[in-house]
Amino acid sequence: MFTDFFYVLKNHGLNISTTEWLMLMDALDKDLAHSNFTDFYYLCRTILVKSEGDYDKFDIAFQEYFNDIKDNSFDMSKIDAWLHNDVETGKKTDPSKYIDKRTEREAKEVHRKFEERLGEQKTEHHGGTYWIGMGGGSEFGKRGHVAGGIQLGNEAGMKTAFTVMGERRYKDFRRDTKLTMRQFQVAFRELRQYSRKLDLPKTELDIDGTINSTCNQGGYLKLEFQQPRKNTVKLMLLFDSGGSMYPYSSLCNELFQAVHKANHFKDVKTFYFHNCIYAKLYKTPECASGDWIDTTWAFRNYDKDYKVIIIGDAGMAPEEFKDKNGNYSGPNGGLSGKEWIELFKKKYPHSIWLNPSYHYGDLNNMYWMESERVIRENIDMFPLTVDGLKRGIKTLMYDKKK
């Protein structure tokens, strides 16, 4: 039963065991879904999904299998645009979920009619009684006046709708998506190594010392103070700028802002490069000629204790990476990009590379991705996702000497 549904879930990356699937079948045999579609949804999610990070994957798979949206020729993005552009206020509205439990027969009939409209409607329409739109008497749309239809916007009109189509309620819970400012800030909290060995005044109350001194004085209170613990982590950020990194400029800006707003690092240095690290590190993302420092100067002035995070897609032509004259945007300094990467890793052993376009397949047969493969051999590389950043920071803080 529902064997095709099992494979749809697997194709969307959900790790479902045979035992879990048989458990779901057993639950259905015991009528734990109560012959109700909504209860069936929650039953499936409860048994098959192990983490809220996979809720969005499950919703997409569930919608694809039971609503046949993926293969429908009608452009659902157009419907979304029509219904989330409020004709009264001119403002965009966010969808939210409202469900009115109906019988299975009613549900099937409503979905049949909805699919029929999807195949017929080609333009935006509001206020009528037939097409998908807003404020009308149709069973489908937003703020309509017919109960028990399909609600595609936010609040329903006179009564709540049977279901909401096209919602991605849990997409922010995903762990394989690109990060937001808040997620960056939470992850960077792990970049902390506290110490009292800094030359700081004794301004922090020493609880244990105060107790000992008070006891030694026969109970007369004697306050003791100590140097505060401060984060000793020194961080260096290197951003690939321009070219194929343009689509990720906003993401890189959020990462940059998150680091500088954290305000708990001992020191933060930020530099830029184009495609690969060469003889110069640029001071601004424009990577303008002359607005740079020598990479060797950085080696001399920033010690090996710096934790280094390199952000880039690691993709370039092989000659850019391997040839001593491959850098077309600045000087090579007599070395290839590959050699500069090796020198950089040797100088800064605590380095990671975050890749917003991380490739999971075989890189050996990909012309533009040969550089990514070689860089991975030298520097630990992670996808620029929630899980990727967490794993990267854990690697960054690991002391290999222990």
Automatic annotation (TrEMBL):
Pfam family, one: VWA_CoxE
Name of the protein in question: VWA domain-containing protein
Lineage of origin: Bacteria, Bacillati, Bacillota, Clostridia, Eubacteriales
